[in-house]
Amino acid sequence: MPNKAVIHTEDAPQAIGTYSQAVKASDTVYLSGQIPLDPSTMTLVEGDFRAQAVQVFKNLEAVCKAANGTLNDLVKLNIYLTDLNNFAIVNEVMGEFIKEPYPARAAIGVSELPKGSLVEADGIMVI
Asked: Is 58:65 a contact under the CB 8 Å cutoff?
């Protein structure tokens, strides 16, 4: 049985359901989905899609840091969009936070996300 630990940080939004921010099993960290909640207020950030995407990556970054890694340690990233027309913007924002070589990735169109968010992302990191 692999070594398993829950990852938690006050620098990312607290779970709004029955899940952990991340779980580490051996050298792999499974990050739960992050929506653009401000960790201090637990409300959606104000602004357009870009502002939401930036907050999602800030939240993921905080969880990675709590697990002693960085966004550049991600090997898989899933991005959920309520409007696939925002695909180019999320690519730009991702490029501001993650450098090559990029993780494997999926961009998935969905009809709705928690709290009316326009974007959510989860991932897998190896440290």
From this structure: no
